[in-house]
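Incident log, entry 3
Record: Dipeptidylpeptidase IV N-terminal domain-containing protein (283 residues)
Problem: checksum mismatch between cached and fresh output.
Input:
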Amino acid sequence: GSAGASWGHDDVIIFAPVGGRGLRRVTASGGTPEVLTEPNTQVGELEHGWPHILPNGAGVVFTITRKGHDARLAVLSQDSQQWTLLTPATGGAQYLPTGHLVYAFDDELLSIEFDPKKLTVQGSPRTVDERVLTSTTSFGRLGKAYFDLSTTRTLVSLPAPSVLENKPVWVDRNGKITEMAFPPNPGHYSTPRLSPQDGRLAIVRQADVLGRETWIQNKDREQWIQLTEMGSDNRSPVWASDGHSLIFASNRLGPQNIFSKTLVTGEVTRLLASSDPQNPVSQ
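Fresh output:
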């Protein structure tokens, strides 16, 4: 199978065979495909997919999955043959002549300013559609977003269903499933993270299409505590190595920046301030 293909103006096709093989390039007339990229396994890259050739031929926007991380957009420079990570995404992106990349993250269709000469994103993403159908587990976790754009900027997409409720459970190494004795409130749950010290669970609850909250269990796992109460979007929890604080992304002060909350005192500190969207990751 292939995670997408892109046909350039010079009759070169770039495609992405799945299975950790990276991007390949072949002429429209046929021939032996050339290796364009291969996942950098030393930094945990697993798959490259969903290539989109930029109109000026200066680069290729594509998607990367890495071990233990959300999929992210990246851009390959045709000059240096090096790629740079851009922003978290589900599936691929497409470039508009207005100077924007259009892509999905979770169930939102977003656009962000993109400079095709510098190959950099600018500013914060804007919502194009609040509900577009996506799959985060397709194509080796590259994901897939069900939308397409024409050169005349006409958008077609499949709408996402209403928030689907699910229920987190415990699964041991033998695959045995145990329901939680004290289940959380109804909602759609994602991004579970266990504390490295005492096994407390942090998890993100999506209560509606746009709203996300981060919750944690207390040490005896008999009570759920809402960690985040400010902002409409609190996601991507990461435990500090000592287990005393939790780092997360939030839009509570405007752009999606990275914050840390000390669990004992409840003190919240913004760690990074930027107009660009940010998400913490663990190494």
